[in-house]
Design goal:
The complex is a heterodimer of chains A (597) and B (449).
Chain A: H1 3-21, E1 27-29, H2 32-38, H3 44-53, E2 61-62, H4 65-87, H5 91-100, H6 120-133, H7 144-166, H8 170-184, E3 185-186, H9 188-191, H10 193-212, H11 238-256, H12 262-276, H13 282-304, H14 309-335, H15 356-364, H16 367-391, H17 394-397, H18 402-409, H19 422-452, E4 456-457, E5 460-461, H20 462-484, H21 486-489, H22 493-497, H23 500-511, E6 515-519, H24 529-532, H25 540-544, H26 560-564, E7 570-574
Antiparallel strand pairs in A: 1-2, 1-3, 4-5, 6-7
Helix pairs in contact in A: 1-10, 2-8, 3-4, 4-7, 6-7, 8-12, 10-12, 10-13, 11-20, 12-13, 13-14, 13-18, 14-18, 15-16, 16-23, 19-20, 19-23
Chain B: E1 9-13, H1 17-29, E2 33-38, H2 50-55, H3 70-73, E3 76-80, E4 83-87, E5 92-95, E6 100-102, E7 105-108, E8 112-114, E9 127-128, H4 133-142, E10 148-152, H5 156-167, E11 171-175, H6 188-200, E12 204-206, E13 211-216, E14 222-227, E15 232-234, E16 237-240, E17 244-246, E18 262-264, E19 275-277, E20 282-284, H7 298-312, E21 325-330, E22 333-339, E23 349-355, E24 362-368, E25 374-380, H8 386-394, H9 399-404, H10 406-409, H11 420-431, H12 443-447
Helix pairs in contact in B: 1-7
Classes of the chains: A mainly alpha (597), B alpha/beta (449).
Amino acid sequence: MRPIQTFGLVLFILSFATFILALSLSKFQITEEVLSKVISEKEKDKREAFQNVASEMMDKSYSSQFTFVAEVKEVLKKANQNIKDKYAISDKEIAQIIAKNPAKTYELSKIEGIFKTEEPLGEYKAQAVKDYTNWMEGREFNSPEELQNNLKEAIEGINNSVINQKGFPEYDTKNFAFQITKKSSKGFLVSQSIFLLIFIFLGGTLGALLYIYPQRFKGTPGIKNDHIFQSGLTNRGAIGISIGVFLISFYIVLYFYPYYITNWVILVDPISYALNGGEASQWFLYGILYTLAILVMGVRMMVKYRHSPYQIWRTGSVMFFQTSFAFIIPQMLIALHLPYMDLKNIWPLDYDLFTPSRLNGFMEAGNIGYLMLSWGIILTIIGVPLMVYFFGKRWYCSWVCGCGGLAETLGDPYRQLSDKSLKAWQIERYLVHGVLVFAIVMTGMMLYTFFTDSGEVLGLNSYTVKEWYGFLIASIFAGVVGTGFYPFMGNRVWCRFGCPLAAYLGLVQRFQSRFRITTNGGQCISCGNCSTYCEMGIDVRWYAQRGQDIVRSSCVGCGVCSSVCPRGVLNLENGPTQDRINSNPILIGNDSVKVNV
Amino acid sequence: MEASAAQKHIVIIGNGISGITTARHVRKLSNHRITVISGETEHFFSRTALMYIFMGHMEYSHIKPYEDGFWKKNRIELKKAWVKTIDIDQKILHFEGGEKMQYDKLVLATGSKSNKFGWKGQDLEGVQGLYNYQDLEMMEKYAPTTRQAVIVGGGLIGVEMAEMLMTRKIAVTFLVREDRFWGNILPKEEGELVSRHLLEHHIDLRLNTELKEIIADKNGRAKRVITGNGEEIECEFVGLTAGVSPNIDFLKESGIELNRGILVNEYLETKISEVYALGDCAERRVPVKNRRPIEQVWYTGRMMGEVLAQTLCGKKTAYQPSEWFNSAKFFDIEYQTYGVVEAELKENQDTFYWEAANGKICLRINYDKTTETVLGMNVFGIRQRHEVWDKWIKTQKSIDYVIEHLPHANFDPEFFKQYERQILIKYNHERGKKLRIKTRKGLFALLSR
């Protein structure tokens, strides 16, 4: 190792250590000012409710983020209880409402007087009862008991919605805790954030590049896979496992406990302000890390495969699309107050494109919103089949896609760990097409909800289905497993087993495309490099040794099988579609028999 | 499928590419009982890929072309044992452990063993060839205690061994008897191209140098070699890679006719009824035109297996290979050859040679002086289509035609630099011609005519 590489490696490790250490460099203190930032003036009641039970927390300095978050959650729980006590229709009030409606017909006018409508509280309750029982007005029920039961049910509904309307709802706890933790932060990290930002992000990037780039001058260009299966880093050894555990933990915290990484988010606030005028969220932080990972490891990929123009162009492409389409352009959209959109993300990978909230966002943005939505629809309906027909799914999966981009750069050292067994292929087909069906059903339900305003489809709550999709597929599968399992199951776990867009692209590639991997006559020696280094777990050798071209729905066209082949047997090609799938190959070189095996 | 009454027990000795291809194709064609015997490993693996295990590119499981369940599923019985003797009258195999096995038809696919030419010290510890799995294990055993290695014999396996050892930071001195690398196969320019590449990889290449003797240390391990010109080289490991020869020692008393290999006719039959031989261990009584009597490459073993399976299943078929082809990789440089290109030009042959400025990429085309038809080619650093060259040579295309249509044969990945124009310019210049490139690279140009 050259001295400059050693320096780079040390710098990177120091930056990374500081990055981890940064998580512990804040103290936390809730002040009036913090609260006013987190809970707006419009929700004064809520702020009061919080303050009433948070007296012990107010102005107290916490050094432990865990204690702080735990106590915030406790406060929220108490505040919610108080809010519920205050705004819920009491048993006494229920009794009064029932007493006023003893017969079989319900009359709203009869409940007047129960609530003190001159006060805001009474007004709220009266309005709620009116909203929830409006449909019963003037209706004749079969019996007084039936009317009473309906009333009780309606009021139960009111009481269940109190927290959502007036308190701190469950679904928002994560976000609230994140916001209040971030804004309560003070101390070394906050005061030195610019220095830390530069040291960690710039230092880390520079260090990694100083370590990686000089490898260009080491040895000769060519396939260099020496020691991959002898190193713990790349063959599930201690370092590999540690990296996996780190990645998995990172994703779990990012998705489910973002309030523990507020320090990291504070660090990137200045970049966020510069790019979009607003403060950073955990997703902005994620975007920066993701882009940096693709850029830095992209340089590594280009250095490693510097003998192959195909790999260099392809890597340059994923680096470009990540930086511009996935990172910079969405930030500009936010700055321009337009709906957030990654213009190269395609439904069903962009699984919530057709949810009511996104659709409404597009509509509110006017013409340009409609343009963006049309772009999304065109990509799905026309872009995918057309481009896959001409180039195979590689145009997207290994040239454009963000998940693919990360897999091809950060994940490249782990491509050899994908399972090549027949069993894995069987599981893959069920899983990936299962997710595609799930995505289609979920999207169908969302569209139904959008057009009919009914949140229920065939007895299922469409929002619940979407939430489950988001949790199981988008968070756990794509994130935690998809990236976290790189060092265990290879770099394309998500793309191979889970991505619904990959499944869609794959169906087109299998049945209607010009793309194939050509096998060069009888030159295969069954060595197994192609299968071993196939990130999608395709047993490429199975076809190559029979002289058969490879047409597989899962192939993302990374071209590494062709790169690692020592005998020049494999080549990614677009060609005429007739006879593309040669199920009865003839091994060239043998004139004795026409072998059909 | 044949009736079960006609079901025979076909026993194949050797689970390399020849034996396994035979077994697989017999299974495709028939319902015979098949047993494959090997003492080397339980399962078939790609012999040519052994080097990648040592270098850490792959593990043993990766170089097995079929999953372990494949054999049972296809009713190919595997027996891990060494055959000691064969009783051809009783049709019985005797194993080293004393067991026996009855056969109806016997296929000998026993492969090769590394050549040892009677050098003094050739059987010392730390002295070995590289052919089978046990050789790999031995290399693993000696590598940790080796700083300097000497490799004897400039051929494909020698380069593989050098590449393997270099990954463990072991210095390699390479003794080559000829004046260039692989001098009995490669013409001068190609041999020099590879030699330069070996030097670039810091191999201490000693041309025109023979091994005389290997000296042992007090534990019987190699510690030094003495070359033909008396030079002494300290080392802890000696690789003997001066070719291979048929692995037939155990057949000497069997009654099967042997020369250097097991003698067979064009149907791969020995003179003993229902005993066949193929692959590295077989020697043709009358060689195929332009071929050697013993063919020791992966591809020929596979093709003989495809053929022999036909004969075994009742459709007697002669081994008729098409145009010769082969390939290899020397460190970073890939090599392919199609048709006949010998180290020295024969009478009535002429040659065209082009080399890129970087000295790592070249193309040679040999052709008939009178008819100008293409006879064969060598290529380094550019991938070429097997199908296209096979057809060009078989249909006796002229060298002019080939030069004009070279992009058809280009099999390099997309975006790679193309050299067809450079090649054409050199050809036009040397021959005083005005040819033009008439095709483009890619499947569309090739298939949609």
